[in-house]
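Researcher: Here's the sequence for the chain we discussed earlier.
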Amino acid sequence: MFFALPWMLLGLLGLPALVAIYWLRSRARTKTVSSLFLWGDQRRSQQGGKAFQRFQTPLLFFLELLAIFLIVAAAALPALIRSATARPLILVLDDSYSMQAGKTESTRDRALRSVEEEFRRTDYVARVICAGSRPQLQSGVFRSGDSFKEIASQWTCRAPLSDLESALLLAGEVGGETARILVISDQAPQFPLPAHRVEWRSFGKPLKNVAFTAAGRDPASGGTDAQTDRVLLEVTNFGSSPATTELTLTGGGEMGPSSKRIELAPGTASRLILNVPSGSAPLLARLGTDDLAIDDTTVLVSPPRQLLRVQVDLPEGNPLRRELIRALESTGQVLIGEGRPALIISDQVQPSAGTAWQLVIHSRGEASSFDGPFVMDRNHPLTAGLSLDAVIWSAPDEIVPSGIPVITAGNRVLLANQEDSSGRQTLELVLTPELSNLTDSLDWPIFMTNLVRWRLEDQPGPSRSNLQLGQPLRVTFPLDDLSSEPALVTTSDGQSVSLPVAGRSVEWTPEQVGLSQFRRGSMAFPFACNPLNGAESDLSKCESGTWGSWNASDRFQDQRMNLDWALILAALALLAGHMALVSRGGGTGS
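Model: Thanks. This is the structure I predict for it:
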């Protein structure tokens, strides 16, 4: 049984008032009068007063007590769930890793126990949606009385974030109009809930937490002779009070474990930058234990030193040549003019470039200048980090780049990209350097860095060796590799995942943090996955509570049996008996 309006039970506070009336009885006083004929009632009044007397419990008292209880209970709208029909339920589970918080009992464990209790009280037929970066509808239908081990195995709480709003939209489509939706999370809803259909239960607790929020290991700049990796570690205190933790480093070419004491003010971060030998063992960094263990460990592997061979086919007198070479060398990932090029930069399209990508820069002719606004395709790899603020871009009037526009000024195309059937990219850029300040701005080295990284990602090997949780691993195979042999990934917990290969590359998003191994034929390399989402590591906003309720919804009236009418009839019968006793003068005892 449940109450649709449980706050009406506050009316039971009237029961102590009734008890007080019967407890506080009046006491007679001696009065001297001349006669009694003027007195209408010589009996001792016992209907009220201020003096304490022995508590008397006549029959009228119990009738009145029970009548008040029945009236208040009826006002709270009690109801029973019909057991003949199972209720459809969509269970939306927050799958982010903040649900692992807790030393003795995690938020996930508390929530799972509550769901089990809900299934014991009511007969449900449930589908499960795990709300991670993208909501996923799990296979299987769960009924009351079934084992919850399968739900627990699907609810891993390893996602870097939880898109609960999208999960609610999916739940509405899956469940239709008659299904209840129960959301389990560790935070309050951040958006309005559909009325009388969604119930949101949060089981979080505001906790202190010190976590890794950034970690990286990249080859240091310096060309082929550099034998050093640059490591960056960022530690953040998400608590409201100062925190002290111990940072321990193992591996990475160190002779043994090294420790460093870190003191952090509330809401502040500390960064550590160090150099380790290139190609050395994975570097393991650990923090002191706290309420969320998953973000206290970071592992970084040494990335393969990939250098891009670039050929710059611009005349010596071209003012762009020096700016191009300087920007390319600043990336520390190129070899200019050596061997077979993977990227050719010239002032005209070269049909015999083979598999090399081309950047064609047109700079001759009468030019017009543009100071914005510039429209950029933000989904293109070349525009990452570009702002073009305060940039004056001059371009020849008679030349229109071929391909899909990437950067435009109004209807004037400044950069375009076209791809052939083999995946080779040809970029056409119109730029008059004498009239532009693009090469003097910060956007120029950013643009060239994006170009180098984009080209390197298409070369054989992994896109990156150190991933953030939720970031896909993309592995590209050589052009002459036509094998259909699947790739094998061994995760940090020892499980093996087979990845089918179609074409030149395979893409996979790891769900397990730590050190993993990738193998396919002669290609084998380690890679690491780390949870580095500060929003999930911030446990100060977690809370417990319930928002929304489906009990008062008219949509679910056919699934319950109301009991308020029976309580009202019983109360009326008691009041009728009370009136009969009062009119007969009965029901009073001493």
